[in-house]
Amino acid sequence: MNTAPASVPLLAVEDLSVEFRTRSGTVRALDRIGFELHRGETMALVGESGSGKSVTAYAIMGILDEAARTTSGRIVFGGLDLVHADDKAMGEIRGRELAIIFQNPRTALNPIRPVGRQIADILLRHGNVTAALAPQHAIDMLARVRIPDPKRRALSYPFELSGGMCQRVMIAMALACEPQLLIADEPTTGLDITTQAVIMDLIAELAAEQNMATLLITHDLGLAAEYCGHIAVMHAGHIVETAPTAALFATPRHPYTAKLIAATPGGAPDLAGLASIPGALPDLRRADLPPCRYTARCERVATDCEELPLRRLALGAGHHVACHFPL
Amino acid sequence: MLLLRRLATALPSIAGVIIVTFLLTRALPGDPAAYFAGPAATTQAIDEIRHQLGLDRSLPVQFLDYLGQLARGDLGTSLSTGQPVLAELLTRLPASAELTLLGLVLSVVIAVPLGIAAAMRPGAPVDHFCRVVTTAGVSLPTFFTGLLLVYVFYYLMGIAPAPLGRLDVFSSAPPHWTGFYLIDSLLARDLPTFGAALAQLVLPAATLAIFSLAPLARITRASMLAALGSEFVRTARASGLSRRRIVYVYAFRNAVLPVITTLGMVFSFLLGANVLVEKVFAWPGVGSYAVEALIASDYAPVQGFVLTMALLYVLLNLGIDLVYGLVDPRVRLEA
Ligand SMILES: Nc1ncnc2c1ncn2[C@@H]1O[C@H](COP(=O)(O)OP(=O)(O)OP(=O)(O)O)[C@@H](O)[C@H]1O
Ligand SMILES: [Mg+2]
To answer: Are B213 and B292 in contact (CB under 8 A)?
Structure first.
């Protein structure tokens, strides 16, 4: 289905660059990244810490902080360019068409507001229900994410719930208005292994039920492979390779991807594995960053890599790589 | 229930205050017996007065006497006025309370919106203004601010009334309901008296407000900044909630918690600052009463004053705890 050229993607990130102006210099957090996501598809964004996964997610949601500047590119979602959309339009889309769940469900919820009311706030904002019905709808949402005794739980505060329960509440909030796209930014980090699987299954199931596209952000290539049809690999603010999951594992074309896969034995979740790739991310505040930001860690590096602008090569069947000398 | 438990935890501090005030007044310089006997008195006369006052007995015995009196609600008699201390404190307390509360309300009404505005636009002019206000507020001693205000608005510009108490000489006190002239005059539908009372109140209340503005504005700004940068505000933004809802319902209600705590602290500072401000404005409150008694080495009013302040302080903290519990469910459920 991803080969059908006529289908318009739900989300197309094109040439997107984001910088942060900080006291210690400009952080070039994203550099001309691009990828596409179709209705109902699931895609993973993987990469080590600091590679720009969350910045990508926040840029799509339009919730980057004040220090951020989008210096190039577009984010086309349902025909609208989110980079240039005004606050009012974004306010309408956020929470209704586009939703996000965060890594730390406990701190991502308002500590002094009952969780049912936090869900109801969103329902009311997007005009789906009347004030009288909102509480009941919130309870229904809690039931949908399988929170036991939802009626009572709706009155609970986040500190009375376990981390897993809080993440379910976050999911209920995100899905309350049946969005087209769900971004899950490391939704299971900080939860124990069993809860992780339960939460991931819940997200996958609800996404399939309402034909929602999902962008899963994770460190964990194994998790990405298990739940996503496509994988985009990020490194230091670049998307170095995008491919259908099977193709990525069978024939990784970027040296970094190959290293990642080698470091993730049997698809087992392995944070330490990512760290075992030699070298570190370059300092993104450097003014003289090479066109390819992987050069310092790459075994195949040549002079071209340091001089020629990096291009995204299409290798067919949705497989793209940003490398002068792909494997 | 919660109320009782909080009250119980306050008992030791009240007992401590009773002991400390007793010892402190005994340790103060000056001999009340000599003071009351007058400069021409003989040693014999002074000894006699000392005996009458019970000051020749041992400290533990004096302390037991004192406790017995307290238990009967007797705070002793002022030597300089000859009146029971409790009655005098009660007639003067409304004057102090009205002044302090008005000062506090004034400063909250200014400081909280200022802090919020500063937090919402860090680095903007309003933020710099907030910084100037908080720095100036802490560096000015209250009696100095008071004198300055009197000098400028009464002496130079002549738009404030003379700093001589709660009402000017042409007005008479409204009927006594609450003891708060502003409220009583309104209840009596006596607008001229209301105006006169308000005119007298403005400068001393402003003095207290300027003093308490700084900590309140600073904490509001800081906690509002923290709340606006928090993850749950990010969630609220990502959910498309309106800006007003995010700022006032999500951020502010969380940010108000440290403000409430600071409010309690500021109030207790104000109780202290009151003493000097009342002196500057000839305010017939408990503060000026205590200062006069202190100068006269008149123990009983001083003890009564300190005890009253301690009780007020305890009650205040109780109130703060209760309000805090209303806002923050985490506190409510722990108890
Ligand atoms: N508000 C900000 N101000 C300055 N720099 C920022 C800001 N947010 C992110 N960055 C920088 O952007 C880069 C990418 O950060 P990002 O949070 O997207 O990483 P990530 O891939 O999500 O990592 P993690 O797996 O740790 O969440 C980092 O170098 C980070 O320091
Ligand atoms: Mg992140």
So the answer is: no
Where does A128-270 have alpha helices with state H? 134-144, 150-153, 163-175, 193-209, 221-227, 245-250, 255-262
Structure tokens of B279?
A: 């002196």
The model's pLDDT over B228-261, given as tens digits with 9 standing for 90+, comes to: 999 999 999 999 999 999 999 999 999 999 999 9
Which of A13, A16, A17, A20 has most ligand 1 atoms within 8 Å of CB, for mutation?
A20
Which chain B residues in 172-211 lie under 8 Å from chain A, judged by CB atoms?
Answer: none
Question: Which atom of ligand 1 lies nearest, measured to the CA of A57?
Answer: 18
Angle at A79 between CA A76 and CA A83, to 5 degrees: 35
DSSP B199: H
What number is the average pLDDT over the span B305-326?
A: 85
Delimit the domains of chain A by residue range.
Answer: 11-86+228-322
Q: Which residues of A touch B231 (CB under 8 A)?
A: 102, 104, 107-108
Which residue of A77, A97, A98, A121 to mutate against B (max B Cβ within 10 Å)?
A121
Confidence of residue A265 (pLDDT cuts 50, 70, 90): low
Domain ranges of chain B: 93-284
Mutate to test the pocket of ligand 1, among A21, A45, A54 (most ligand atoms within 8 A of CB): A54
The nearest alpha carbon in chain A to B237 belongs to A63
**The domain at A11-86+228-322 falls in which architecture?**
3-Layer(aba) Sandwich (3.40)
- Please say whether the beta carbons of A63 and B234 come within 8 A: yes
Cβ–Cβ < 8 Å for B326, B285: no
CA-proximal residue: ligand 1, atom 1 (nearest): A65
Express each pLDDT in B82-132 by its tens digit.
889 899 999 999 999 999 999 999 999 999 999 999 999 988 999 999 999
Q: Comparing A34 with B10, which gets the higher pLDDT?
A: A34
pTM score: 0.86
The pLDDT assigned to A267 comes to 47
Using the beta-carbon criterion (under 8 Å), do A94 and B327 form an inter-chain contact?
no
Q: Which residues contact B332 (CB under 8 A, 6 or more apart)?
A: B325, B326
Q: Which CATH number fits domain B93-284: 3.40.720.10, 1.10.3720.10, 3.40.190.10, 1.10.357.30?
A: 1.10.3720.10
ipTM of the complex: 0.90
Q: Which residues in chain A touch residue B327, judged by CB atoms under 8 angstroms apart?
A: 112
